[in-house]
Write a structure and sequence with these properties.
By secondary structure, this protein is an alpha+beta fold. Strands 1-2-4-3 form a 4-stranded antiparallel β-sheet. The N and C termini lie far apart (71 Å). It has 3 helices and 4 strands, in the order H-H-E-E-H-E-E. A hairpin with a 7-residue loop joins strand 3 and strand 4.
Length: 140
């Protein structure tokens, strides 16, 4: 009888210990989730006006911003790049410094899902005030 009681006590004790361990694991998980939620709220408050998402094709975006910035006549080539994401390779010629900055600023800040993957600016030998620029954009 004593043996049966001690075996029952041991089983109940082990079961209670495993419940305590599970409770602490669940508590840790919820604390991590809570801290991530607080961090998410802080980031949302910090970023009150996030950039919108580009819903149309990248080609039409390029055509629109070149018209808006009045650099359409300096647009030399537009090459769509096939792959997992929509990409486009653009070449401008004879850009001034401020036009170059305007293009990079508009493309970088207009939409949150359009990124500049790479760009290259080459000084022109025939006219040092101007430069040529190649940009590779991706829509993610």
């Amino acid at each position: 009888m004593i043996l049966l009681l001690s075996a029952s006590y041991l089983l109940i004790y082990k079961w209670e210990q495993s419940l305590i361990v599970k409770k602490s694991e669940i508590l840790n998980k919820y604390q991590k989730i809570y801290s991530l939620a607080q961090e998410n709220l802080a980031l949302k408050k910090k970023c009150k006006n996030p950039a919108p998402i580009l819903r149309r094709e990248l080609m039409s975006f390029v055509q629109n911003f070149t018209t808006t910035l009045k650099v359409r006549d300096r647009l030399e080539t537009i090459k769509p790049v096939s792959g997992k994401v929509e990409g486009i390779y653009i070449t401008f010629i004879k850009l001034g410094f401020e036009e170059t900055i305007d293009i990079l600023n508009l493309v970088n800040s207009k939409y949150s899902n359009v990124i500049i993957k790479s760009f290259k600016i080459n000084a022109r030998i025939d006219d040092p005030e101007f430069s040529d620029m190649q940009i590779y954009l991706e829509k993610i």
